[in-house]
Amino acid sequence: MDAVFDNLDLFWSGFLRSLGICLWGMVGSLVLGTFIAACRVSPIPSLRWFGTSWVTLVRNCPLTVVLFFMAFGLPEIGINQSYYVFGVAALVIYTSAFVCEAIRSGINSVSAGQAEAARSIGLTFSQSLSQVVMPQAFRSIVPPLGSVIIAMFKNSAVVGAFGVGGDLWSVYKNLTSAQGYDGLPVITGVAVGYLCITLPAAAFLAYTERKVAIAR
Amino acid sequence: MSNVLYDEPGPKARRRAAIGTVVAAAILLGLTGVAVWRLADRGQFDAELWSPLINPGDDNFVLVWRLLGKGLLATLTAAVLAISLSLVIGTLLGVARMMLGKGGRIPVVAAIELFRGLPVIISIFYVYILIRSTGIDISFLPGSDGLWFLVIGLTLYNSVIIAEIVRAGVNSLPRGQSEAALAIGMTRWKSMKNVELPQAFRTMLPALISQLVVILKDTSLVAVLGLYTELLRRGNIISLNLDNPIQVLFVVGVIFIVINYGLSKLAEFVERRLSTRGQSSGVRLETGAAAA
């Protein structure tokens, strides 16, 4: 295990870089996913159609295909970015479909009577949304949304393996091929690095789930 | 259409929705137009780029599709092997978690949490490194070594997921089922094997089919590692030779989407059928399907 302990600083910087991919992916997919969810529940048919097609297409397509399409396809039409940008973008597009579904199912879990009651006592659309519907929907959104985000953290390893530079995977490449360390201890270090992201996230989710759980 | 967000629209809302539809459609069409224009501008609709994929008269057509077929077969082989192995190991793990005492359960729970938290691509790569560096000989297994790195990696992750599905399925059964089995003198193991698991599997079926979709998608992870030539890696190699990544990856994406969409629809169909059958025979299965 010397390979890991002698190079802790390298692992630490790789870990931060991998964590960065996760955080950018989280922010991006929450924003895009919320937008797609808004499309899917909107009263405008063409937006609903767009949201539904987006979810159907993206959810059934492997992340790797999205990633390859961006990294190898987009340069063909003159869009050149670093693999980091392409990787995060692919992660955001892929995860947005799952974020959308988590949000939509949460909104749908609120019974229509709640909104009808809000309207009948004279609340406007935005009041009923912010005071009645969303507070209830939020509680049902948290557990599935948390699982989606944790799955996204794990998927960020795909982006890393694709080669973005500076992350845990490049630490692996650096230590094994350039410095000649054995693969097994180094990949163990990489795996522990990812577990340091996913396990606390899972524990935090379990804690939050208990806090917001609806007593039924 | 009325739901929790808005009521049955009146004349004003209908007018607004109509205007919104036109505006949104115009924006979407505009964006599509920009994308199409960009693709056309860079010559991505040129016949020479598409013809190996869509023109049966092309010299490469037969070869390209034979290779894609081989890739698809490789993907399906890995997926079927992984789901079968995961099903067996996952059921054992799930049952072990439920039947072992508090102390004996700890290693099972630890393994489940560990493999659930590990990214699948790391599991696959880890299996590869572990087998290579310990020199374990897996050549006696049919198929290439790469296939088994993939299958074992996928199985590690998916068997713990299936263990949780099994547990949810069994826990969703009414308590009376196991109580009745114990009351007529079955052991706990017999009650699990002959009474609870068979019922749980029925309610789990939709969740298992959905898991197959996840596995199918995850087989393409090895394309990044380059350990096994499945559909995506095969497509990537073809596109390097023909110099048409957009076109080949488009076709690969469509193949994945069609298969996975079909499987998702099948899962929905099975779920509906199970729940309606359950209602007619008076057995409560809806709760199980929801929990799974």
From TrEMBL, chain A:
It is a multi-pass membrane protein. Its main location: membrane. It comes from the Bacteria. The chain crosses the membrane at residues 15-37, 49-71, 83-103, 141-164, 184-207. The keyword Transmembrane applies. It is found in: Cell membrane. Signal peptide: none annotated. Residues 15-205 form the ABC transmembrane type-1 domain. Keywords: Amino-acid transport, Cell membrane, Membrane, Transmembrane, Transmembrane helix, Transport. PANTHER family: AMINO-ACID ABC TRANSPORTER PERMEASE PROTEIN YHDX-RELATED, MEMBRANE COMPONENT OF AMINO ACID ABC TRANSPORTER. Belongs to the binding-protein-dependent transport system permease family. HisMQ subfamily. This is Amino acid ABC transporter permease. It comes from Nocardioides flavus (ex Wang et al. 2016).
UniProtKB/TrEMBL annotation, chain B:
Belongs to the binding-protein-dependent transport system permease family. Coiled coil: none annotated. It is found in: Cell membrane. It is a multi-pass membrane protein. Its main location: membrane. Residues 72-267 form the ABC transmembrane type-1 domain. It comes from the Bacteria. InterPro entries: AA_ABC_transptr_permease_3TM, ArtM/GltK/GlnP/TcyL/YhdX-like, MetI-like, MetI-like_sf. Keywords: Cell membrane, Membrane, Transmembrane, Transmembrane helix, Transport. The chain crosses the membrane at residues 17-40, 72-96, 108-131, 146-166, 200-225, 245-263. It holds the Pfam family BPD_transp_1. This is Glutamate ABC transporter permease.
